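Consider the tokenized backbone below.
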């Protein structure tokens, strides 16, 4: 908007109309704000901001109009039904936060008073004393109260920038505002009083939340008011007087109706009122007292108390009146802790919690302590202690001799003894706090950073903490700052996080000496944790476990007399009484905590005296003589021993082992003080005596400890001797058994060892020359019945819990969708591996019948649970899911444990010479042809017999081939059933169809799952640079072995003709057969899947062949054939370029051979291939391309035939190409395969190249996968998280016409941004509406996917529709912490290690397992409707 137009607009808007006041356009708009609709409001607010608020002169004029109408605007807002962001009242932040405007409005418009008065007008409910009274906190009440609280926010805006210069007007108006503020606090003083319930529990919890909400909101305002007062001495003095006057009014009638009573102990007497916290009304809300305490500290801090004592009403102060209400409040807390207020319900417990809580304590608990310190510093400490005993209702106990003895000897209620003990402990704790808490600037000679340092030190004494934990435990100022950053380096080391967890701050060892066991901000749980941690630390450092009080800074002069409480007569009397109870420990009711506090108080007093002596000035006498007083015996008549003597007695008490170190420290400190005093005087006689007694007691103690240690050592030796004697006898008695066990262990070790039986033989995994491995017996234990069983062919089935899932982790084409699963033929896997079936297992073994029983019970339980409550579980029983009974890992089927199946099938004599590849292909082709003729005849049985006989003539059965022979299934019924169970489960999950064990596709899915799982394991090992046969985790090793053996045995439970049909079709893809016309070309077949299918289907054909050709020969020829096809695949798709990296060395055998093969290939393809590059490049691309295939084949044949792996492949490093070739019975020069069988290979290569799809590829009309396939990785994430936020903020919902997406969610697998958790982007999936993420999960991850919710900074794992969990994101702040839901707002950076961990979970197919564990650990995750995300 141009400046001129803006000014004209401002003038017109602010010009008064004919109706006088409030008639300008701006006024009329503001006052009618609540009558307008949202859109109109937003428009004119924007207009105000771009005109009136952009020009300083008019901003000032507008501020005045706003302040004049403030009360009316706020009233409109409170009754309005729209949020604050749509109200004109929200413009207050634009005006009140400008310091010059805020000051101007305070002085000219009396803004402070207006805001406070407006606020009070809205809180009209008062009781008879004029205090706020809140109704039941209903939703409507809460809504209205929230609106009223926005006024406190305005007050905060006005006070947030503090004045540097004060004018008289500002002083006057601020003090007027302060008066109004005192009126507000006066209405809060004593609100929500409580009375102890006796006999019957409270019927209805009283309302307490509103009062505490008000207190929390006002906390910062109270602090800021004090900060303003501190800036000007005159204002501070006036404010102090005003506050005191209001407190006097509140205390008017302080003694009315209360009976005066006189207390006397140790010759001191004081008059007070008879008041019992446990019988009268008491309130936790005392804001006036606390404000006065804050101002009193400021008098000390700013030294006004010393400069202008005549201006201050200090002489008028009545210390007993000042301390009365804060003391009642602290006694209330003590009694609640002692369990005396149990019948008052949770409302009181909650109030006490918030009273101490970090959000409120600065203006509640802390100020009560300061008020007591103020009172004590102005009165006789003996008088204070007697009043305190009276309020704690302990006066009777300490004023009556032997009261404790009488209490314990009478048959009193145990609760009463316990209550009194707790009250004494709490009272002693309060005294410790009054003397020890001097870290507030103004109470002790410290500054603000010392206070924060101390807070941090004590938090870190509990345990090392993360930055966010520390911040939460520290109080925030009005700017949400804790001040931690400035001091943390001085007191703590930062320890960076690992793969999990968070960065931690650890306390520097030198700061541990500042630890105070009775730090006043510790909760009870924190105190015991800190004590335990510090004692443990001291034990580790071989130090005394005593935790003496730390050296404290001196008090400010105004509070200096506080220390005298420690040496007052009543205090010494209390200490002596409790020590007396401890010495005569059987006769009295006392507790160790009580004694521990007394020892701490004695320690504090000695530290104090030591400090006084060290800092004493010349000619000054130290008046603090605690050491002298504790060495004097008690007064007549009973002449009790001195405190020192009692401590020496207690040092040797066997029932006080824990406190011995502390008592020793006290005696040592006492002697040090004695020395210091005597060094200033002449004599040193007493000193030596003191040290002698102390040393002798220490020596005695040492000797005692030594004696005990010696006894313990002798006892240990005796026990050990007895045990070894018993072992020897047992071995002698069971000699035979023992030798047998040793032998068995040795044989077991041999079985476990992967090293070959004969070390100098070459290990070969397949073929006629396969290394023969001795049969190994395998024993396993069922995790359900604990029975051990040997795995045998005829025994009951043993099974592994397994989880089968569809997977796209290796996919190179995620867009491929199976349109009709019922008609889909999965026989040939495309090399893009668009969707595979992965099988994983936790490796726990069960009997098949035990598992069946367990699964039935899970199903029955689920049905019962569904009738009771409609909740999800982490597993879906309807889909056959269950949790492993041992490790609770998600499973959905079981794999049977089998012996190596090849040993069972291959038990015929092989008496003929084994054929070469050419002969073998010829034989197999004949067998296939014979089978096809037979199948045709079976399918057309009704044709005339003459025709039939013609066919039979045509059918020349190859020698030894018996197609009518059906082998007997070697497995027991139990194993056969489990073979069918696992096969059907793989088929059902892999194709997403209903289970049908008769379906001909079942065996194909089993072979496919075996091949895919091996491929994914090989990929993981390669990506992590791990050796192929290195130490695999047991669960992986067991899973691969069982899965491969199962896949090899599954044909025995399928129809023989079906498996033979699959073999014929698979074989025809490599060796052309006229019967099959629709087979895929060589470029569209994944060779490893083909290999597994051929090898595992071959026994179905070979079992009818009695010509003597072994199964091993078939395996070898199939493997060679598939390897050659894969080499041609690589050569056809390789895009080698001679980018100047040609080798200078002469071409070797491999290079020449591969060049010759390439030449043949060019001839076969009609020169459609590119010009021949160098042989070195070609050979390099063949080697690189075939390595993954060789590795997968090595794993497959290792688990199939059980031949141990060569030791060379068990270590990482070189590529192991030669070792793999040797192990797989391949020549090192792979091209030799073509040369050895040149006549047939030429025909095969020609037939492969003639396929129409190969021609289309060579002519550039289609794409093909090139080798080696690259590993899939999750998308690259930016280093800085703000880049992701920017990306998400620019993303609009694709279906809402450009509206911003509320929950933009990034798929980490493919990088798509989705509009999650919204109705607009829901999609239909199998007739059900699901959210965008769930729909994407099925299209991108085949049911499993990983997302990043950008606005929440949360990783989301989804599996199916009912499973999901949130996972720790890979973004950390500078303190090594994640910021889920972006609550803290620190800059976040990518942690590569954590991102790799997420990627590893994805590669390992562990996402579903992770979700299962998360849902079991946190039941709230189960209830989330994941399908709507």
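A designed sequence for it:
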């Amino acid at each position: 908007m141009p400046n001129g137009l803006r000014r004209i607009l401002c003038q017109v808007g602010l010009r008064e109309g004919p109706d006088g006041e409030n008639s300008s356009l701006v006024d009329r708009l503001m006052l009618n704000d609540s009558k307008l609709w949202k859109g109109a409001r937003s428009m004119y607010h924007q207009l105000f901001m771009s005109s009136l608020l952009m020009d300083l002169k008019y901003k000032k004029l507008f501020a005045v109009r706003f302040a004049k109408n403030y009360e009316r605007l706020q009233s409109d807002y409170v009754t309005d039904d729209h949020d604050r962001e749509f109200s004109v009242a929200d413009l207050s932040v634009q005006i009140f936060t400008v310091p010059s405007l805020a000051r101007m409005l305070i002085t000219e418009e009396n803004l402070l008073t207006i805001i406070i008065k407006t606020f009070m007008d809205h809180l009209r409910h008062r009781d008879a004393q004029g205090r706020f009274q809140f109704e039941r906190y209903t939703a409507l009440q809460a809504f209205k109260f929230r609106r009223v609280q926005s006024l406190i926010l305005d007050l905060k805006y006005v006070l947030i920038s503090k004045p540097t210069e004060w004018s008289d007007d500002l002083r006057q108006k601020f003090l007027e505002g302060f008066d109004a503020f005192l009126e507000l606090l006066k209405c809060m003083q004593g609100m929500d009083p409580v009375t102890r319930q006796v006999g019957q529990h409270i019927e209805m919890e009283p309302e307490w939340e509103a009062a505490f909400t008000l207190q929390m909101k006002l906390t910062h305002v109270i602090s800021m008011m004090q900060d303003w007062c501190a800036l000007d001495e005159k204002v501070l003095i006036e404010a102090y007087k005003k506050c005191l006057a209001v407190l006097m009014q509140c205390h008017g009638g302080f003694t009315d109706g209360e009976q005066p009573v006189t207390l006397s102990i140790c010759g001191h007497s004081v008059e007070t009122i008879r008041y019992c916290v446990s019988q009268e009304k008491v309130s936790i809300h005392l804001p006036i007292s606390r404000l006065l305490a804050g101002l009193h500290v400021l008098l000390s801090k700013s030294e006004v108390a010393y400069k202008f004592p005549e201006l201050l009403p200090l002489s008028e102060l009545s210390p007993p009146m000042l301390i009365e209400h804060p003391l009642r409040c602290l006694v209330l807390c003590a009694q609640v802790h002692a369990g005396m207020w149990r019948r008052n319900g949770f409302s009181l417990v909650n109030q006490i919690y918030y009273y101490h809580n970090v959000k409120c304590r600065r203006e509640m608990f802390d100020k009560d302590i300061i008020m007591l310190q103020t009172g004590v510093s102005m009165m006789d400490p003996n008088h204070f202690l007697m009043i305190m005993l009276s309020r704690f209702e302990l006066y009777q106990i300490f004023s009556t001799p032997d009261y404790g003895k009488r209490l314990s000897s009478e048959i009193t209620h145990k609760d009463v003894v316990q209550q009194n003990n707790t009250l004494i402990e709490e009272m002693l704790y309060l005294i410790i706090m009054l003397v020890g808490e001097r870290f507030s600037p103004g109470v002790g000679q410290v500054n603000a950073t010392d206070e924060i340092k101390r807070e941090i030190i004590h938090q870190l004494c509990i345990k090392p903490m993360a930055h966010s934990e520390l911040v939460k435990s520290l109080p925030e100022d009005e700017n949400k700052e804790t001040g931690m950053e400035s001091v943390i380096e001085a007191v703590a080391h930062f320890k960076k996080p690992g793969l999990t967890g968070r960065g931690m701050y650890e306390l520097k060892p030198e700061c541990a000496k500042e630890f105070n066991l009775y730090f006043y901000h510790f909760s009870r749980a924190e105190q015991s944790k800190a004590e335990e941690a510090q004692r443990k630390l001291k034990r580790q450092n071989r130090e005394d476990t005593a935790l003496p009080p730390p050296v404290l800074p001196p008090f400010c002069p105004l509070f200096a007399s506080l220390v005298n409480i420690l040496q007052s007569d009543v205090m010494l009397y209390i200490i002596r009484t409790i020590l007396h109870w401890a010495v005569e420990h059987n006769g009295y009711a006392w507790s160790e905590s009580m004694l521990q506090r007394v020892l701490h108080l004695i320690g504090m007093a000695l530290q104090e005296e030591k400090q006084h002596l060290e800092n004493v000035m010349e000619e000054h006498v130290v008046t603090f003589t605690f050491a002298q007083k504790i060495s004097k015996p008690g007064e007549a008549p009973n002449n009790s021993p001195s405190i020192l003597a009692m401590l020496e007695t207690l040092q040797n008490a066997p029932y006080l082992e824990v406190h011995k170190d502390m008592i020793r420290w006290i005696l040592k400190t006492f002697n040090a003080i004695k020395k210091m005093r005597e060094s200033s005087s002449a004599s040193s006689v007493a000193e030596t005596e003191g040290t002698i007694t102390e040393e002798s007691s220490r020596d005695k103690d040492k000797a005692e400890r030594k004696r005990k240690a010696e006894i313990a050592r002798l006892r240990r030796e005796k026990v050990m001797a007895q045990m070894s004697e018993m072992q020897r006898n047992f071995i002698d008695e069971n000699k035979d058994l023992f030798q047998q066990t040793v032998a068995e262990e040795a044989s077991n070790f041999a079985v476990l060892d992967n090293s070959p039986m004969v070390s100098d033989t070459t290990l070969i995994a397949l073929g006629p020359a396969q290394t023969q491995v001795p049969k190994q017996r395998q024993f396993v234990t069922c995790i359900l019945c604990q029975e051990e069983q040997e795995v045998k062919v005829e025994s009951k089935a043993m099974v592994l819990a397994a989880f089968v899932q569809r997977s796209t982790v290796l996919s190179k084409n995620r867009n491929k969708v199976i349109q009709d699963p019922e008609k889909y033929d999965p026989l040939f896997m495309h090399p893009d591996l668009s969707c595979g079936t992965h099988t994983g297992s936790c490796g726990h073994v069960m009997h098949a019948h035990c598992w069946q029983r367990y699964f039935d019970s899970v199903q029955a339980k689920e049905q019962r649970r569904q009738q009771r409550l409609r909740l999800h579980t982490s597993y879906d029983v309807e889909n056959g899911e269950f949790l492993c009974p041992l490790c609770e890992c998600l499973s959905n089927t079981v794999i049977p444990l089998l012996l190596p199946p090849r040993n069972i099938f291959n038990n015929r004599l092989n008496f003929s010479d084994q054929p070469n590849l050419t002969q073998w292909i010829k034989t197999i082709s004949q067998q296939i042809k014979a089978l096809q003729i037979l199948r045709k005849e079976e399918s057309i049985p009704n044709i005339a017999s003459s025709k039939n006989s013609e066919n039979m003539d045509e059918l020349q059965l190859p020698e030894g081939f018996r197609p009518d022979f059906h082998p007997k299934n070697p497995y027991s019924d139990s194993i056969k059933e489990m073979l069918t169970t696992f096969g059907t489960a793989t088929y059902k999950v892999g194709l997403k169809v209903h289970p049908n064990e008769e379906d001909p596709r079942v065996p194909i899915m089993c072979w496919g799952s075996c091949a895919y799982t091996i491929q994914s394991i090989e990929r993981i090992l390669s990506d992590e640079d791990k050796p192929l046969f290195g130490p695999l985790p047991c669960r992986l090793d067991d899973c691969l072995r069982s899965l491969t053996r199962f896949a090899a045995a599954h044909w025995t439970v399928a129809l023989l003709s079906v498996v033979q049909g699959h073999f014929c079709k698979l074989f025809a893809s490599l060796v052309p057969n006229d019967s099959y016309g629709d087979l895929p070309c060589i470029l569209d077949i994944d060779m490893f899947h083909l290999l597994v299918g051929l090898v595992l289907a071959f026994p179905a054909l070979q079992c009818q062949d009695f010509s003597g050709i072994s199964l091993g020969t078939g395996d070898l020829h199939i493997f060679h054939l598939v390897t050659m096809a894969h080499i041609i695949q690589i050569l056809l798709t390789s895009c080698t370029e001679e980018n100047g990296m040609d080798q200078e060395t002469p071409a070797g055998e491999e290079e020449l051979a591969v060049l010759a093969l390439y030449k043949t290939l060019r001839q076969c393809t009609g020169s459609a291939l590119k010009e021949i590059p160098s042989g070195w490049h070609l050979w390099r691309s063949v080697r690189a391309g075939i390595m993954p295939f060789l590795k997968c084949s090595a794993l497959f044949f290792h688990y199939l035939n059980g031949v141990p792996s060569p030791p060379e492949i068990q270590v990482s490093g070189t590529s192991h190409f030669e070792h793999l070739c040797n192990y797989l019975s391949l020549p090192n020069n792979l091209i030799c395969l073509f040369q050895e069988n040149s006549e047939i290979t030429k025909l095969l290569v020609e037939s492969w190249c003639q396929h129409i799809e190969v021609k289309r590829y060579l002519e550039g009309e289609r794409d093909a996968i090139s080798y080696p396939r690259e590993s899939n990785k999750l998308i690259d994430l930016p280093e800085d998280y703000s880049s992701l936020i920017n990306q998400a903020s620019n993303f609009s919902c694709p279906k809402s016409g450009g509206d911003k997406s509320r929950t933009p969610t990034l798929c980490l697998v493919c990088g798509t941004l989705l509009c999650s958790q919204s109705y607009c982007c829901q999609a239909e999936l199998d007739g059900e509406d699901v959210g965008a993420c769930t729909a994407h999960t099925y299209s991108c991850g085949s049911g499993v996917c990983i997302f990043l919710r950008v606005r929440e900074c949360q990783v989301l794992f989804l599996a199916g529709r009912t499973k999901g969990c949130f996972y720790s994101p890979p973004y950390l702040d500078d303190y090594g912490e994640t910021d889920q839901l972006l609550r803290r707002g620190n800059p976040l950076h990518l942690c590569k290690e954590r991102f790799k961990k997420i990627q590893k979970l994805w590669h390992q197919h562990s996402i579903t397992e992770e979700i299962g564990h998360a849902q079991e650990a946190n039941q709230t995750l189960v209830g989330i409707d994941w399908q709507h995300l």
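The radius of gyration is 44 Å.
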